Amino acid sequence: MIFFVIWVLLIGYAVFLAPGGDADPVFSKILSMEWGDIDPLVFAVFNSLGLFPAVFLTLLGLNDRQRWPAWPFTLASFGVGAFALLPYFAFGQKPAERKLRTPKWLVRFLASPIWLIALIALSIGNLLTLLQGFSLSAYREAFFASSLVSVMTVDWFVLWGLSVYTVRRFYPEARHRALAWIPVIGPVLVLLLNRELRTPLKRNKTG
User: Fold this and answer.
1) Which H or E run includes 25?
2) Measured between alpha carbons, how far is residue 163 from residues 37, 83, 158 in Å?
3) Letter string b/e over residues 11-24, b meaning 16 or more CB atoms within 10 A of that residue's CB
4) pLDDT tens string 51-109
5) What secondary structure does DSSP assign to 139-192, as a single string?
6) How far is Cα 186 from Cα 26, in angstroms, rounded to an integer?
7) How far apart are CA 166 and CA 53, in angstroms?
8) Range of the domain at 84
9) How many domains are contained in the chain?
10) pLDDT digits over 149-195, tens only?
11) Rounded to whole angstroms, how far apart are CA atoms 134 and 40?
12) Is Membrane tagged as a keyword (predicted)?
């Protein structure tokens, strides 16, 4: 029920409450590729919304035994973030199934250190853009001037919370589980440091 409530609130915020006018200054700069005119913090948050879905593709793909298949929601999240994932968490997670839906080749890829390290590297690369210098006041101005920035900020926090929940849900016995609180990188680190937990093909019998 809590995920459904969050979903409704998120939609309500995006439709009725998000500040910003019809002419979105940040969105227009993204479309025209004037990225240098966007505050680095705004740009880093925007980019992380493309990294979070890759994290959920990994976490949910390695644990896709629930009532609904996870892949349609994770793929849709690349476009609309938590708006796509929250219905899955609200309605599609139970009762659990025994058989893993994810193809074996994809399981091996998602569980591979190469993929996990690549996600970490991309996340660190995104954070390095902040070294150009960022301004919290500039972010605040963008938040109230751009509906894109205001909605993506709220979306970012929801995705962060969902990622922590997902790690706790599927990997309650994981070592270093507190690392999941590190945005984007944390859940990937938990998987990387718990090799035995990212091999779902061997865990099917205990499902």
Assistant:
1) helix 25-31
2) 31, 14, 9
3) eeebeeebebeeeb
4) 999 999 999 999 999 889 999 999 999 999 999 999 999 998 777 767 889 999 999 99
5) HHHHHHH-HHHHHHHHHHHHHHHHHHHHHHHH-TT-TTGGGGGSTTHHHHHHHH
6) 28
7) 13
8) 2-203
9) 1
10) 999 999 999 999 999 999 999 999 999 999 999 999 999 999 999 98
11) 5
12) yes
Across 6-26, average pLDDT = 91
Q: What is the distance between the alpha carbons of residues 145 and 118, in angstroms, rounded to a whole number?
A: 34
Q: Which amino acid is at 40?
A: P
pLDDT number for residue 201: 57
Minimal CA–CA distance to 50: which of 145, 131, 156? 156
Q: Which of 11-15, 22-26, 41-45, 186-190 has the lowest mean pLDDT?
A: 22-26
Residues 6+ apart with CB under 8 A from 141: none
Rounded to two decimals, the pTM is 0.92
For the cut 60, the answer to whether the pLDDT of residue 207 exceeds it is no
| CA 175 to the chain's CA centroid | 21
